Amino acid sequence: MRASEPGSSCGNRDAIEAEAARLLARLNSGVSPEEESDICDWIEADPSHAVAFARAESAWEAAERLKSAAAEITLPPLQQIVSEEQQRRLSRNIMVAAAVAVMLFIVAAIVTVRTFSGVDRYETRIGEMRDVALDDGSILHLNSDSQAEVRFTDIGRKVRILKGEASFDVAHDKARPFDVEARSALIRAVGTAFNVRMRPSIVELTVTQGTVTVHSGGSMGQKVAAGSGAVIQPRRISLTHLDPKLIGQRTAWRERMVELDGETIEQAIGEFNRYRPAPILIGDTRVSALRIGGRFRTTDSREFLSALQFSLPIRAVNGEDGSVMLLYRDDEPAAADNGQAL
């Protein structure tokens, strides 16, 4: 690791990441099709936009995992809040909604049974990684806290990612395409290697070998070749060219490593928390925007925490439950002005 002076490129990256965070918040709050299209256009406009949006997704995902259970709130009786007529309407609406929900559940259950009967399920706990040799010679690699279902037939090979991240080394078999489902995304390969990460609002695809075809919702299939990736949304696929460094960063987990390249501390701990039963937390907002780079083992976050405290004005405080709180250290103003460690 080495300290570096922040430059104009850093300021530009901050602006891009701020815009990515704003657009992600809009997307998750519900937008019109036109607004969603505008957001997708922004993501597609520049590879740095797609990378920033994926990082914002990672931070969002980490925040969702760290939310504590909401405190119970005691409300006054319903009749004190709404009128009798409003109560009748509310009851009617609840009954209709319940009936629709039951019907949708039955349909979904039927589809699931027909599509994925006789499946093999594989999963990993937090901090665990797993390599699974499949019957056709393909290999499924599961990252921490991930789940996948596999079903092979005489005419096809199908994998459904239920959560987390998976990487595939697909055995060549022209007669049986290899399909990977992740939410609305359908990724089809014959013999290739690729990585799929499920984030809160998107599916992130990285192709490292060969070519895959991607479908999402009613969108036309798009080919994604090695050295490229895609940000997949329910009705949109945004293709991006990825430089080798970024591909290495996305797939470093296969080597049990986290690779950072100027990410903020908030983004960095979001990555490490994927592998920790007890989280790293930020106890001072001044810590969040500091940046760090380096390569660290997923199995030993102490190395990462030591690097933070050595190179940045950060103090780590251990909690009794195994969590770690990051606080700003005020005794090094020069380091605070620098604001980076790489």
Question: Could you please describe the fold and organization of this structure?
Answer:
- The structure is a single chain.
- By secondary structure, the protein is of the alpha+beta class.
- Helix content is 36%, strand content 31%.
- It contains nine helices and 20 strands.
- The protein has helices spanning 8-28, 33-45, 47-66, 84-116, 244-251, 265-272, 285-288, 301-311, 333-338, and strands at residues 120-123, 130-133, 139-142, 147-152, 157-163, 165-169, 178-182, 185-189, 193-198, 203-209, 211-216, 222-225, 228-233, 236-241, 257-264, 280-282, 291-297, 314-318, 324-328, 340-341.
- The strands form four sheets. A seven-stranded mixed beta sheet has the order 1-4-5-7-8-11-12, with no helix packed on it. Strands 2-3-6-9-10-13-14 form a seven-stranded antiparallel beta sheet, with helices on one face.
- Helix 3 (47-66) packs across helix 6 (265-272).
Which short descriptors sum up this protein?
seven-stranded antiparallel beta sheet; 342 residues; disordered N terminus; disordered C terminus; alpha+beta; single chain
How many DSSP E strands? 20
First-to-last CA distance: 5 Å
Q: How is the main sheet built? A: 7 strands, mixed
Structural class comes to: alpha+beta
Short summary:
With 342 residues, the chain is of the alpha+beta class.
